[in-house]
Every structure is written in structure tokens, then in C-alpha cells.
Amino acid sequence: MRIKNSLTSLPLLPLAAAVLMTLPARAQQPEPEPEPGTEVQKVVVSGLRAAEHATVQTKKATRQIVDAVSQDDIGQLPDFNIVEAARRIPGLSVVGGGDATKNRDIYQRATIRGLDSRYNLVTVDGVPIASADQTYRGARLEMLPAGLVSQIQAIKTVTAEYDPHALGGQVNLVSRSAFARDQDRFFVANAFAGRNSSAGKFLSDKKNSGRADATGAAIFGDRRQFGIVVSGELQRLPSSAFSELPGDTAGAGWTYYTASGARTPFGNLSATGQQAPVRNQDYAFDNLRERPSLNTKLEYRFGARSHVSAFAGHYADKDTETRYETLTSPGAPVGPTATGGRFALGDVQQGFTYQPVKRRTNLFTVDGLFEAGADADIGVTASSSKATYREYRQMIKYTTNPRAGTTTAQYLPALAYSYTLAGGAPRLAFDNPQTATNPASYKGLYWRDINRDLDNNVDFVRADYKHNFKPGDRGFGFNLGVNLTKTRQAWDVRYQELVPRDAAAQQAIGSLANVLIPSSFPTYETPQAGYLLPDRQRAAQLTNTYASSFIATNQLANNFGDDYRDTEKVKAAYAQGIYQSERWMLLAGAREDRTDVKVDGYQAPTAAGSTAYTPSSRNGDYRFLLPSVLVTYQLSADMRLKGGVSKTIGRPDFAQYAARRTFAVGTDGSLTVNQGNPALAPREAWNYDVAYEWYLPRGGVVSAAAFYKDIRNEIFTTSAVGPATDYQGRTYSQVTIAQPLNSAKAGLRGIELQYVADRFMFLPRELRGLGFSTNITWLKGFFNQPMSGASIANGGPATRRSSGLIHQPDFIANATLSYAAGPLDVRLSYNRIGKALESVDQDTSERDLVAMARNQVDVQASYQFSRSLRAVVQGQNLTRAPFVVRQGANRELLNNYFPVGRTVFVGLTYEADL
């Protein structure tokens, strides 16, 4: 069933309601008494304010330094999805896609306290979840449904019972429970229709967005011992975007020129000292995201503290995208200056990439807690998750002067052009615009079909024994536990490339004019030319119609060099001791963590004339003893201090374990070997934390936290002189080996401030519904970047200190103003994520990429028509803030500009006790 049809029929809603109504009614039993020492606080809140109250209560109830964002009482997050909502948590920022060749209009992952998301752990109810991403551990938050969670937690002090892969912390999604509400049976449904202001602006006429979710829960049994929750969600989100990339993702889109006209990254070797654009790209995107998901949770409670639950989740993401491209690149420069320049030769390419992606993630977890006496508990958890990633790329490119039988594009004097700089972005003017605008000038360059498949499986088991360890206990206690995690990741690439056989074949296949779409759209960088759009189906059919005119290029390296299969086994045991009194809590522990890695891949051919890639296998292991101490002192009933010291790690990505091994022979007779490193050790961090928390009447809080992270074994890719190596029957004495290594030191410090006021009772009665919350985070990080041999030879230092960690913003701010009066509930939110490094260059800091600060304003309002029915309006990115990446000595040059539309949803929510 297609998503767009499901949004209107919503078959899950009557089905879930019917199932829940058939369950036995509540057996009237007295509520259990609270445990001794447990503080009972009844505060009646509703609507959007219910989420803030639950968030504050979570912070108050946890031992660790934890911040969170919660669902409201009708099952809505304050944003459209999990990763958007995570922005509201103090110290968290979010990042978009790292691939500039794909749509970047949404946030995808969370960064905790300035540590890139690859250094943080994503869990559901404390268990790891498989990743549908080659280069990141843990699930992409944006593909997980909001209906999954009751709360998003950011755990910032990771003690011994937690997986230590959390240099920044752990993002834990708490699934919904049937026992979380007072009702025995309830049903909540939300249905929204909306539009992104950018949708339908390109080729597709798909404009309307839709979201719908439904959750039903019931408690049943003669002792109310059983619970069930069923939650389903559907999304359909079309969008369009026109972006520009005068610099490519590696930062090489701008460069200097020597006196002889050769490119160089070093200004002191340049004849002019001015950087010039050498890769001028315009992209136009049509995108449709479709996401169905389903969660089910069964619970059985058979004692005051004993329970068993089983959770199953299925999450699907289909991202269908077509990207059109206009690319202009130059030959020889003619006097580039600070404001512009000219190139005597040029090349223009037009083409598209059809790149649909399907992601699937399945999770199954069984969790049990069993009383082993008045003061003891035994916990057992087992989970298995599987994620798959299936990407197909169909790429067809036309250019003005291709060399037949190759993928080489040649420059033409007829495409000479000048350029001027406006805000660091180039604007091109051709000497002969008719050559660039005439589709008959373009011949076929290549036809590519690429499949990329990822399979990731994570199996997890945890068991622990706790004695006198509950929050309300007093005196000494302890916690003993073991963890086992097995992760398998397989990556497979299938690559086929066809090119016209010769000049006669180019003529037979025909020019771009034969497959041109009549629609016209302007570009940013080449306003004279604009997009010339090949029809995807007609262009693809040419390889069948003129099959004899095409030849296949050699793609053995792409088909084998990237393939790998990693198996990682983590065995851990931990012990914790605790002391709790009326004022003090001291928690100390240690974790023994051992990891074994096996990497299976392919060895590139080295014998003369050999083309066979042979299977290879490598092994690695590492072991750590990871201590942690956490102390809490209760200053008063509403004030406390927390402090902690812990050691954590950040395991290498699976792609770093198994990066392909390739060989390249230079024109000077040297040999460069690029290889992975299965012996990579994790990053290590000593973490120091202190926090002050003051809980205000009526659910507010004032808090401040400071932290410092001393990071060692930072992973970076380096080049070094290697031993004499045999390759293709020849022995090379000048050998350079490039691989990821552990060496660099890094550090990070920061301050977090938070203020939440539920309401202001000193105001006049009609204004007492006002509420305000804000949090501010300052971050300062660095790592020591080893520099390239070319940089050192040019007089540069062996290492330089970066201006921050990758994806670490310098400043994060959130502010929310809310108003509740009777049936009306309104929230206006502001989020700022400061500038952050995207990549650091080994040659020169002028080619570092920096994501510029982004400010986003959102609004949400609801009106309660009746006890069960509420109308909701949501607006996101009201000011249409774009994503912008810059480079240059003073970030004066544009690297990537990606506009983002304004999104508005209008909908209804229905809530009923069944």
C-alpha cells in the first residue's frame, strides 16, 4: 500500500481500537504504596507543558547528569521527529547529511557536548540498535518514529554499567509503556497535512506532506498485571532544493596557481596569492521521503519490582531522490584577483543522478527485572536488531568535449569564461554563451549503474545483580553485571560503467538535444546557461538501443576494493559500589571491556598482469579498564551538587577498520598504498563533570554544568614512508603508505546553563499561563592535526591545532516561550547552532570546511475543542534558514549553500479512554 493512500485511510486506527476494546476490563485493586524514601509529587499539567514537566522530573530522579525531552500528554514531541526534538536538550546540537551530493534539508544525527555523533551511542531502552549507515554506529535518529518514544534522554555521565562507546554521551530512547498513564485503556491518534514551501518547485508536482500516527494501550488481567502498547506511524515528505557548491566536499573547489599555472594549495607558491574557483557546481534536487513504522510492547508485572517485557519495532525509510547537475570547470587561468578572474579554457557538464535509498531496521528486545529479596534485584536483557541499506545510483552525464572510450572531459576555448565573486560565491560569464546553452553541443560522457548494499546485525545480552541499589535505599550497596555484544557489518558494491566506444559511436548515440526535457530552470553560478535536463528514462534507454556503440570500463577496483565484512565482539564485566544517605550519594565502579575484531576483504592485485582480487582476513583486539566515580550532595530538599570522573572510549567506524587497500603509481615512479587498519584502537577520553541543580516550585529548574574531556588516540588518516614494495612485478623503493592511525591529542571543555519556569505567579491572572525555558551551551575544543609532507616541505609545522572538533559548534542556544490558557496552548521556539568544523585539511587551514551558524524559529499551537479532540498547527523554520558551509583564511569563500524551505502542518489529535 502506498504511503499517500495510507495517510487518508489510516487502517491502524480502527484496528488498534478494536483490539484494545476486546481486552478484559480493569480489576479494581488498590494502588501499590510508594517505596520508602520515594518522594511523591503530584503536579497536574497538560498539553505542551506536560512534556516540560516530565523532562524536569526525569532530571531530578536520575543519579547521572541527564537531560531529556518528553512527549506531551497526547503523544507529540515538540518537533516533527526525534532528531529535531533532540535540539532542545542542553548541550546537544544536530547535524544534517554529510554528503553534499544528496539532499541536506533535514537534520539526521545528534552531537552531544560537541562530540560527533560517531563518538556517541544510540540506544532504545538501553540496548544498542543496528545502523543502516556505513560510516556511523547506531541508528540514524531521523528515521526513527516519534511514536516510538515517551522520552529522549541525553546521558552525559557514563558510569560503569553503560557501554563506554560514548565520548560525548548516550542518546537513549525510552519506549512507551502501558503503565505510564492512569487509564487502563487509552487510544491517541494524530493526523496532519502540510507543505514544505520548497516542494513542487522543481520537476515533480508532489507538494503535499502528510503525517499520521496512532497509539493504543491497555492494562488487563485480574491483578492488572498485563500491559500492551501498539504504535504505528506513517510519513510522506516531498521537497525540492536548488543548491550551489563552488567548493566540493573535499575542499578542493578553490585553489591557488603557481607562476607556471599549476594548481597548489599554498598561497606562498601562487603567482597572484588569490584563490580561484575550479569546480563550479549547481545541484537541483527532487526528493520524496516515505516512512512507515510499527512498534509493539508487551509487559507483565508480577511483583512490586518484578516485570518482564518484550518489545518489537520495524522502521522503514524510502528516500527517492533525483539530482540534476550543471558543472563548469576551467583549464588555464588568466590573472585571478580578489574579486574575479578569467579562464581561457572551459568545460561544462550536464547530467543527473537517480539515487533511491531504502533503509530497514528491525529491533526485538526482551527485558526482565526479578526481585531476589527485599533489597536485591536481578536484571536480564537480550536484544537482536538488523539494519539494511540498499542504494541504487543511476548516473548519466553529458559534456561538451568528451574523449571517446574514456570518462575524460576535455577543455575548449569556446567555453572560456570570466567570473566575479559575490559574497565569496562565483558568478560565471561565458565568452560564447551559445556554446554552453545549446544542447546539441553536449555528447555522452558516461552511463553508470551503482548498487551499494549494507547489512548490519547487532546481538546484545546483559545481566546484572543489584543489592541495596535503588534510589530510595540507604547505606551501602553494589551492582555486578556482564555485557556481550556481537556486531556484524557487510558492505558490497556493484559498479558498472559504459562509455561511447569511439567518435562514430558518439555520433550514433546522439547529443543531449535528443533526450532533453523542455523545462528550464536557472542555476546560481552559470546564469547564462541554466540547467539542461536529460530525460532519465530516454537517456537510460540509449544503452539498449545502441548497445554495440558502448563499451564497459574496467571497474574491478570499485567492485572488490571497497567490499568488506567486519565482525566485532565486545565482552564486558563491571562492578559498582554505592553509598546513599539523606545528603550524600557516592557511586564508584570499573568496567573491564574487551573487543575482538575480524576484517574480511579483498587484497588488490600486485603481480604483473594480474587482475584478480584475492580474499584476505585480518584480526585486531584491544582491552580497557574503565573506572568511573559519581558524587551527589543534597544541599537542600530542592538543591544539589553533582560531580563525576569517568573514562570512555570511541570505537573506530567499521569502514575505518576495513578501508580498501589500493595502489597508485605516480608519474615520478613512486608508489602510494592506501589501506585500512584493523589494529586501530578506540579514542580514549577522561571526562570531568560538575553540575548544580535547583528545582523550583511548580516544576521549574535552574541548572549549571561544566565539563572537560581529555581525549587521546584521536583517529586521523596520515601518510608515511613505507618499506620497499612489490607491485605488478616491479619493486618500488619510494613508497608512501596512507592509513588511519591513532596519535593525535584532543580536548573539549564547555559550560551548560538551563532555566525552566512552568509559570509566573507574580503576573496578573490573565498572564499566569506564560512559561519560559532556555538553555545555553558554550563549547571550546581542539585536536592536533598532523600535516602533510607537502605542507612540511613548504615550511609548515608538523602538526597544527584545529579550531574545534569535527561537528562541534562553538555555541548552542534554545529558548521557548509558551502560553496556556484554558483550551489554548501555544509555543514559540528558537534554536541556534553555532559554527562548526566539517572537515580539516592536512595541507592548509584555508581549506578547512566550516558549517556556519544556523538560527531556526518554530511555532506550535493547539486548541482543545472537546475532551477528546484537539486542533494543532505546527510551523518549522519560519525564516527559511539555509545550511551554509564556507572555507578560506577568514571563511570568505562559499563551499556549499543549501536552502531549506518553511514547513507548515495542520492537523487533529484524538484521545480517548476506551
Keywords:
transport, mainly beta, 27-stranded mixed beta sheet, disordered N terminus, 914 residues, five-stranded mixed beta sheet, globular, 10 helices, Maltoporin, Chain A, single chain
Number of helices: 10
The fourth-level CATH homologous superfamily is TonB-dependent receptor, beta-barrel domain
Number of strands: 47
Overall geometry? globular
Low-pLDDT segments? 1-46
Report helical residue fraction.
under 10%
In the residues, how many domains can be counted? 1
SS-based class: mainly beta
Q: Compute the separation of the termini in Å.
A: 28 Å
Q: Quick one: CATH class?
A: Mainly Beta
Name the beta content range.
Answer: over 45%
Indicate the CATH architecture: Beta Barrel
Mean pLDDT: 86
Oligomer class: single chain
> C-alpha Rg, in Å?
29 Å
Q: Would you give the CATH topology?
A: Maltoporin, Chain A
Largest sheet report: 27 strands, mixed
3D architecture notes:
With 914 residues, the chain is mostly beta strands. The radius of gyration is 29 Å and the shape is globular. The model is unreliable at 1-46 (pLDDT under 50). It has a 27-stranded mixed β-sheet that branches. A five-stranded mixed β-sheet has the order 1-6-7-4-5.
